[in-house]
Amino acid sequence: MLRSMKIDFSTIDAAVLIAAGAKSPLSHRDPVCDHLFPKREEAEASVAEDAKAIDKLQDKLWAERKRALLVVLQGIDTSGKDGVVRGVFNQCGPLGVEVTAFGRPSEEELAHDYLWRVHRATPAKGMIGVFNRSHYEDVLVVKVRKLAPAAAIAQRYEQINAFEKHLSESGVTVLKLMLHISKDEQRQRLQERLDQPDKNWKFNPADLEDRALWDEYQNAYETMLERCSTAHAPWRVIPADKKWRRNAIIAAIVRKTLEDMAPQYPKPNWSPSDFKIT
Protein backbone atom coordinates (compact mmCIF):
# COMPACT_ATOMS: atom_id res chain seq x y z
CA MET A 1 0.00 0.00 0.00
CA LEU A 2 1.34 3.43 -0.92
CA ARG A 3 2.10 5.53 2.13
CA SER A 4 0.94 9.13 2.09
CA MET A 5 3.51 11.91 1.99
CA LYS A 6 2.83 14.23 4.90
CA ILE A 7 3.49 17.91 4.27
CA ASP A 8 4.42 20.00 7.29
CA PHE A 9 1.35 22.04 8.13
CA SER A 10 3.36 25.25 8.46
CA THR A 11 4.38 24.80 4.81
CA ILE A 12 0.74 24.51 3.78
CA ASP A 13 -0.39 27.53 5.76
CA ALA A 14 2.53 29.61 4.49
CA ALA A 15 1.14 29.07 0.99
CA VAL A 16 -2.58 29.52 1.66
CA LEU A 17 -3.28 31.57 4.81
CA ILE A 18 -4.35 35.21 4.42
CA ALA A 19 -3.18 37.36 7.34
CA ALA A 20 -5.82 39.59 8.89
CA GLY A 21 -6.26 42.72 6.79
CA ALA A 22 -3.59 41.75 4.24
CA LYS A 23 -4.03 42.56 0.58
CA SER A 24 -4.15 39.44 -1.56
CA PRO A 25 -4.06 40.00 -5.33
CA LEU A 26 -5.25 36.73 -6.82
CA SER A 27 -3.09 37.31 -9.88
CA HIS A 28 -0.09 36.86 -7.59
CA ARG A 29 -1.34 33.58 -6.13
CA ASP A 30 -0.44 30.28 -7.76
CA PRO A 31 -3.54 28.13 -8.49
CA VAL A 32 -1.27 25.07 -8.86
CA CYS A 33 1.33 25.17 -6.02
CA ASP A 34 3.06 22.00 -7.14
CA HIS A 35 5.43 22.11 -4.15
CA LEU A 36 2.47 20.98 -2.05
CA PHE A 37 1.76 17.27 -2.62
CA PRO A 38 3.76 17.07 -5.87
CA LYS A 39 2.76 13.45 -6.61
CA ARG A 40 -0.86 12.54 -7.23
CA GLU A 41 -0.65 9.04 -5.75
CA GLU A 42 0.79 10.36 -2.49
CA ALA A 43 -1.76 13.16 -2.36
CA GLU A 44 -4.64 10.70 -2.75
CA ALA A 45 -3.15 8.47 -0.05
CA SER A 46 -2.90 11.50 2.22
CA VAL A 47 -6.57 12.37 1.63
CA ALA A 48 -7.63 8.81 2.47
CA GLU A 49 -5.62 8.87 5.69
CA ASP A 50 -6.86 12.31 6.72
CA ALA A 51 -10.48 11.46 5.89
CA LYS A 52 -10.36 8.54 8.33
CA ALA A 53 -8.84 10.78 10.99
CA ILE A 54 -11.53 13.42 10.37
CA ASP A 55 -14.21 10.77 10.87
CA LYS A 56 -12.74 9.74 14.24
CA LEU A 57 -12.37 13.34 15.38
CA GLN A 58 -15.91 14.11 14.29
CA ASP A 59 -17.15 11.18 16.36
CA LYS A 60 -15.52 12.73 19.44
CA LEU A 61 -16.95 16.15 18.55
CA TRP A 62 -20.42 14.61 18.30
CA ALA A 63 -20.05 12.78 21.61
CA GLU A 64 -18.72 15.88 23.36
CA ARG A 65 -21.58 18.13 22.10
CA LYS A 66 -19.93 21.35 23.27
CA ARG A 67 -18.56 22.90 20.09
CA ALA A 68 -18.99 22.84 16.32
CA LEU A 69 -16.93 23.32 13.16
CA LEU A 70 -18.16 25.36 10.21
CA VAL A 71 -16.32 24.84 6.92
CA VAL A 72 -17.06 27.56 4.36
CA LEU A 73 -16.33 26.62 0.73
CA GLN A 74 -16.36 29.57 -1.63
CA GLY A 75 -15.22 29.70 -5.23
CA ILE A 76 -16.22 30.54 -8.77
CA ASP A 77 -18.14 28.08 -10.94
CA THR A 78 -16.27 24.78 -11.53
CA SER A 79 -13.78 25.44 -8.71
CA GLY A 80 -14.75 22.13 -7.09
CA LYS A 81 -16.91 22.75 -4.05
CA ASP A 82 -18.92 19.56 -4.60
CA GLY A 83 -15.71 17.62 -5.20
CA VAL A 84 -14.31 18.76 -1.86
CA VAL A 85 -17.41 17.56 -0.04
CA ARG A 86 -17.17 14.14 -1.67
CA GLY A 87 -13.42 13.82 -1.38
CA VAL A 88 -12.78 15.08 2.15
CA PHE A 89 -15.91 14.17 4.11
CA ASN A 90 -16.79 10.88 2.42
CA GLN A 91 -15.66 8.81 5.41
CA CYS A 92 -17.88 10.69 7.88
CA GLY A 93 -21.26 9.28 8.73
CA PRO A 94 -24.32 11.43 8.01
CA LEU A 95 -25.10 11.80 11.72
CA GLY A 96 -22.55 14.53 12.44
CA VAL A 97 -21.92 16.28 9.10
CA GLU A 98 -24.45 18.54 7.43
CA VAL A 99 -23.90 20.15 4.03
CA THR A 100 -25.85 23.26 3.05
CA ALA A 101 -25.81 24.56 -0.52
CA PHE A 102 -26.79 28.20 -0.88
CA GLY A 103 -28.43 29.04 -4.17
CA ARG A 104 -30.74 31.83 -5.22
CA PRO A 105 -32.65 33.08 -2.13
CA SER A 106 -36.29 32.04 -1.81
CA GLU A 107 -39.09 34.55 -1.32
CA GLU A 108 -39.11 33.74 2.40
CA GLU A 109 -35.36 34.31 2.64
CA LEU A 110 -35.59 37.59 0.73
CA ALA A 111 -38.20 38.75 3.26
CA HIS A 112 -35.50 38.66 5.97
CA ASP A 113 -32.02 40.12 6.30
CA TYR A 114 -29.37 38.42 4.18
CA LEU A 115 -27.77 36.60 7.12
CA TRP A 116 -31.04 35.05 8.32
CA ARG A 117 -30.85 31.97 6.13
CA VAL A 118 -27.18 31.53 6.94
CA HIS A 119 -27.58 31.69 10.71
CA ARG A 120 -30.33 29.08 10.52
CA ALA A 121 -27.90 26.69 8.83
CA THR A 122 -24.93 27.09 11.17
CA PRO A 123 -23.96 23.78 12.78
CA ALA A 124 -25.32 22.76 16.16
CA LYS A 125 -22.97 21.70 18.92
CA GLY A 126 -21.29 18.41 18.01
CA MET A 127 -21.68 18.94 14.27
CA ILE A 128 -19.48 19.72 11.32
CA GLY A 129 -21.35 22.06 9.01
CA VAL A 130 -20.18 22.54 5.41
CA PHE A 131 -21.37 25.53 3.40
CA ASN A 132 -21.30 25.06 -0.37
CA ARG A 133 -21.30 28.78 -1.16
CA SER A 134 -22.23 30.96 1.77
CA HIS A 135 -23.06 34.40 3.14
CA TYR A 136 -20.17 35.67 1.02
CA GLU A 137 -22.40 35.46 -2.05
CA ASP A 138 -23.81 38.74 -0.73
CA VAL A 139 -20.50 40.54 -1.31
CA LEU A 140 -19.61 38.61 -4.48
CA VAL A 141 -22.42 37.84 -6.94
CA VAL A 142 -24.67 40.48 -5.37
CA LYS A 143 -21.88 43.03 -5.74
CA VAL A 144 -20.83 42.08 -9.28
CA ARG A 145 -24.39 41.78 -10.53
CA LYS A 146 -25.41 44.97 -8.69
CA LEU A 147 -28.34 43.25 -6.98
CA ALA A 148 -28.17 45.57 -3.96
CA PRO A 149 -27.14 49.20 -3.46
CA ALA A 150 -23.38 49.74 -3.25
CA ALA A 151 -23.74 51.40 0.17
CA ALA A 152 -25.56 48.36 1.56
CA ILE A 153 -22.90 45.99 0.21
CA ALA A 154 -20.13 48.14 1.73
CA GLN A 155 -21.71 47.65 5.17
CA ARG A 156 -21.79 43.88 4.86
CA TYR A 157 -18.07 43.21 5.36
CA GLU A 158 -18.13 44.39 8.97
CA GLN A 159 -21.54 42.77 9.52
CA ILE A 160 -20.11 39.45 8.34
CA ASN A 161 -17.04 39.86 10.55
CA ALA A 162 -19.26 40.54 13.56
CA PHE A 163 -21.45 37.53 12.71
CA GLU A 164 -18.46 35.22 12.49
CA LYS A 165 -17.01 36.61 15.71
CA HIS A 166 -20.32 35.87 17.42
CA LEU A 167 -20.14 32.30 16.12
CA SER A 168 -16.54 31.84 17.28
CA GLU A 169 -17.36 33.22 20.74
CA SER A 170 -20.27 30.77 20.87
CA GLY A 171 -18.11 27.70 20.31
CA VAL A 172 -18.18 27.47 16.51
CA THR A 173 -14.77 27.31 14.83
CA VAL A 174 -15.07 29.00 11.42
CA LEU A 175 -12.80 27.60 8.69
CA LYS A 176 -12.99 29.56 5.43
CA LEU A 177 -11.58 28.14 2.20
CA MET A 178 -11.57 29.91 -1.14
CA LEU A 179 -10.99 27.52 -4.06
CA HIS A 180 -8.70 29.37 -6.47
CA ILE A 181 -8.57 28.25 -10.12
CA SER A 182 -7.17 29.90 -13.22
CA LYS A 183 -9.32 31.25 -16.01
CA ASP A 184 -7.88 28.67 -18.41
CA GLU A 185 -8.72 25.82 -16.02
CA GLN A 186 -12.30 27.06 -15.74
CA ARG A 187 -12.55 27.13 -19.53
CA GLN A 188 -11.46 23.49 -19.71
CA ARG A 189 -13.91 22.40 -17.03
CA LEU A 190 -16.81 24.23 -18.67
CA GLN A 191 -15.90 22.65 -22.00
CA GLU A 192 -15.96 19.20 -20.38
CA ARG A 193 -19.56 19.86 -19.35
CA LEU A 194 -20.42 20.37 -23.00
CA ASP A 195 -18.30 17.54 -24.39
CA GLN A 196 -19.15 14.75 -21.94
CA PRO A 197 -22.82 13.64 -22.00
CA ASP A 198 -22.74 12.56 -18.35
CA LYS A 199 -21.73 16.10 -17.40
CA ASN A 200 -24.20 17.98 -19.60
CA TRP A 201 -26.57 18.36 -16.66
CA LYS A 202 -23.95 20.46 -14.84
CA PHE A 203 -23.78 23.08 -17.58
CA ASN A 204 -25.68 26.29 -17.00
CA PRO A 205 -25.63 29.00 -19.69
CA ALA A 206 -25.56 31.56 -16.88
CA ASP A 207 -22.06 30.31 -16.05
CA LEU A 208 -20.87 31.92 -19.28
CA GLU A 209 -22.37 35.24 -18.20
CA ASP A 210 -20.37 35.07 -14.97
CA ARG A 211 -17.25 34.04 -16.89
CA ALA A 212 -17.56 37.21 -18.97
CA LEU A 213 -17.34 39.08 -15.66
CA TRP A 214 -14.15 37.27 -14.60
CA ASP A 215 -12.18 40.41 -13.72
CA GLU A 216 -15.05 41.87 -11.74
CA TYR A 217 -15.38 38.65 -9.72
CA GLN A 218 -11.62 38.52 -9.09
CA ASN A 219 -11.75 42.08 -7.75
CA ALA A 220 -14.74 41.22 -5.54
CA TYR A 221 -12.92 38.18 -4.14
CA GLU A 222 -9.81 40.26 -3.41
CA THR A 223 -11.86 42.80 -1.48
CA MET A 224 -13.58 39.98 0.42
CA LEU A 225 -10.22 38.44 1.38
CA GLU A 226 -8.80 41.77 2.54
CA ARG A 227 -11.87 42.91 4.45
CA CYS A 228 -12.96 39.58 5.97
CA SER A 229 -9.80 37.65 6.83
CA THR A 230 -9.75 38.12 10.59
CA ALA A 231 -7.94 36.66 13.57
CA HIS A 232 -11.06 34.74 14.60
CA ALA A 233 -11.94 33.56 11.08
CA PRO A 234 -9.07 33.87 8.57
CA TRP A 235 -9.35 33.02 4.90
CA ARG A 236 -7.22 30.40 3.19
CA VAL A 237 -6.84 30.50 -0.59
CA ILE A 238 -6.59 26.93 -1.84
CA PRO A 239 -4.81 26.22 -5.15
CA ALA A 240 -7.50 24.27 -7.02
CA ASP A 241 -6.31 23.75 -10.60
CA LYS A 242 -5.46 20.15 -9.63
CA LYS A 243 -8.44 18.50 -7.97
CA TRP A 244 -6.41 15.87 -6.14
CA ARG A 245 -4.00 18.45 -4.70
CA ARG A 246 -6.91 20.69 -3.69
CA ASN A 247 -8.49 17.83 -1.73
CA ALA A 248 -5.20 16.85 -0.08
CA ILE A 249 -4.58 20.40 1.11
CA ILE A 250 -8.11 20.84 2.43
CA ALA A 251 -8.18 17.44 4.16
CA ALA A 252 -4.93 18.32 5.93
CA ILE A 253 -6.35 21.68 7.03
CA VAL A 254 -9.63 20.22 8.29
CA ARG A 255 -7.81 17.48 10.18
CA LYS A 256 -5.38 19.95 11.80
CA THR A 257 -8.26 22.24 12.76
CA LEU A 258 -10.10 19.39 14.48
CA GLU A 259 -6.91 18.21 16.17
CA ASP A 260 -6.39 21.72 17.53
CA MET A 261 -9.98 21.74 18.79
CA ALA A 262 -9.10 18.42 20.54
CA PRO A 263 -12.62 17.09 21.18
CA GLN A 264 -12.84 14.41 23.86
CA TYR A 265 -15.25 11.61 24.63
CA PRO A 266 -17.18 12.54 27.78
CA LYS A 267 -16.49 10.54 30.90
CA PRO A 268 -19.64 8.85 32.29
CA ASN A 269 -20.62 9.37 35.92
CA TRP A 270 -20.77 5.60 36.40
CA SER A 271 -18.32 2.70 36.23
CA PRO A 272 -18.67 -0.10 33.67
CA SER A 273 -18.04 -2.55 36.50
CA ASP A 274 -21.31 -1.41 38.12
CA PHE A 275 -23.31 -3.20 35.43
CA LYS A 276 -23.70 -6.77 34.23
CA ILE A 277 -25.38 -7.65 30.96
CA THR A 278 -27.46 -10.83 31.35
Essential attributes:
278 residues; alpha/beta; Rossmann fold; five-stranded parallel sheet; 11 helices; 46% helix; 12% strand; globular
How would you sum up this structure, described in words?
The protein is of the alpha/beta class. It has one domain: Rossmann fold, CATH 3.40.50. The protein has helices at 9-16, 40-64, 81-88, 107-110, 116-121, 141-144, 150-169, 183-195, 205-211, 214-228, 243-261, and strands at residues 68-75, 97-101, 128-132, 172-180, 235-239. It has a five-stranded parallel sheet, with helices on both faces. α2 (40-64) runs parallel beside α11 (243-261) and α3 packs across α11. The chain starts with 8 loop residues before the first helix and ends in a 17-residue tail after the last helix.
Q: What is the CATH homology-level superfamily?
A: P-loop containing nucleotide triphosphate hydrolases
Shape by Cα distribution:
globular
CATH architecture annotation: 3-Layer(aba) Sandwich
Major sheet: size, sense and barrel closure? 5 strands, parallel
Helix share of residues? 40-55%
Number of domains: 1
CATH topology: Rossmann fold
**Total number of β-strand segments?**
5
| Rg calculated over all Cα atoms | 20 Å
Order of helices and strands: HHEHEHHEHHEHHHEH
Enumerate how many helices there are, as a single number.
Answer: 11
Structural class category: alpha/beta
The overall average pLDDT, rounded, is 95
- The proportion of strand residues reads 5-15%
Q: What is the CATH first-level class name?
A: Alpha Beta
Largest sheet: spatial strand order: 2-3-1-4-5
Query: Any low-confidence stretches, pLDDT <50, length ≥5?
Result: none
From the N-terminal CA to the C-terminal CA, the straight-line distance is 43 Å
